[in-house]
Structure to design on (359 residues):
């Protein structure tokens, strides 16, 4: 090895060693783009150091490398691919409904929510027909921008009070709902429900109708909750977040809808999943027992990846630990090799839109 080769290798090693663990996940999320640009520039500078070996005329190019206990991804983490945006967005909301969120739930269904510190207004947009609710409440019709929509209404009442039975949601409290075909191939439901007694809803039926009439044909981006260094053809088909459970990301490979059967017998789970949240609430989802030995550990900048024997029946799993007690559970098909599982898990980090779960 000549002096130039040694100098380049030494520079790469020093650069990797100086990447320290992130002191805080929230700050790391905000700083990720800056760090990614710096790393790309550093890596490209090294790759550009093509050395013509004296006398041989050969070319030597520096490339990313692996060692038994460290994985340096070939590309910086980036949001998982191809989460289609919602084709509809809010146009008008009642006063106080100032927190908006978008989830993608399969198949081809988006859920917009707006909250006021109480029950949320939920707008479901689907490429398949949505069946209007039928129950002990009152059904009617209303005009939504020239289209006849079906309404469903349950007034405020005590939980379980006649004639609303003992089964939710009617038994729980008040409901207002509007369901209609907004345009060819697009069905929409606007829904508001209070579970917990006779307290009035946070918005009236008239206000809910104004929400329905004010919906806009404007795309809304699905939040980037998880980043993956090497998605390897995976794309997002479901993306959900709440402040209690954290993020649940369902991924697929290819264009077909391939599902696996849950313990309940329903085919509603994808072969690839990532759950990201507080370690106290989701670690058990990996199926790891405390008494099981750790089979493999990878220490990476800002995270630790663990593989143990899992009793999870539907997936092979790995655990990624981050600062601030945040954990990602990575679930892959049972026939995935341990090496491929660890490679995928090693590239998983919180996405730029992820908010750390404190509970």
């Amino acid at each position: 090895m000549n002096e130039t080769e040694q100098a380049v290798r030494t520079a790469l090693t020093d650069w990797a060693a100086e990447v320290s663990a992130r002191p805080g996940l929230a700050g790391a999320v905000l700083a990720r783009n800056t760090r990614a640009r710096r790393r790309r520039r550093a890596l490209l500078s090294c790759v550009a150091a093509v050395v013509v070996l004296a006398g041989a005329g050969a070319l030597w190019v520096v490339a990313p490398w692996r060692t038994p206990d460290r994985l340096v991804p070939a590309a910086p983490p980036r949001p998982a691919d191809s989460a289609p945006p919602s084709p509809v967005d809010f146009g008008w909301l009642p006063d106080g409904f100032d927190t908006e969120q978008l989830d993608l739930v399969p198949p081809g269904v988006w859920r917009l929510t707006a909250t006021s510190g109480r029950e949320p207004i939920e707008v479901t947009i689907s490429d398949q027909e949505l069946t209007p609710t039928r129950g002990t409440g009152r059904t009617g019709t209303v005009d939504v921008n020239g289209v006849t929509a079906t309404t469903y209404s349950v007034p405020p009442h005590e939980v379980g009070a006649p004639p609303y039975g003992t089964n939710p949601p009617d038994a729980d409290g008040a409901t207002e709902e509007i369901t209609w075909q907004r345009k060819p191939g697009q069905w929409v439901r606007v829904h508001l429900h209070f579970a917990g007694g006779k307290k009035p809803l946070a918005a009236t039926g008239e206000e809910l109708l104004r929400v329905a009439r004010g919906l806009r044909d404007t795309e809304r981006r699905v939040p980037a909750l998880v980043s993956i260094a090497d998605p390897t053809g995976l794309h997002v088909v479901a993306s959900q977040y709440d402040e209690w459970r954290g993020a649940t990301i369902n991924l697929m490979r290819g264009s077909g809808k391939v599902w696996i059967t849950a313990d309940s017998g329903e085919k509603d789970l994808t072969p690839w999943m990532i759950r990201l949240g507080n370690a106290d609430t989701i670690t058990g989802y990996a199926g790891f027992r405390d008494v099981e030995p750790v089979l493999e550990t990878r220490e990476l900048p800002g995270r630790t990846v663990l593989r143990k024997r899992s009793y999870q029946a539907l997936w092979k799993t790995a655990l990624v630990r981050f600062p601030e007690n945040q954990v990602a559970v990575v679930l892959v098909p049972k026939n995935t090799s341990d090496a491929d599982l660890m490679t995928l898990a090693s590239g998983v980090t919180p996405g730029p839109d992820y908010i750390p779960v404190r509970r």
Summary: The two ends are 53 Å apart (CA to CA). Residues 157 and 198 are 4 Å apart (CA to CA).
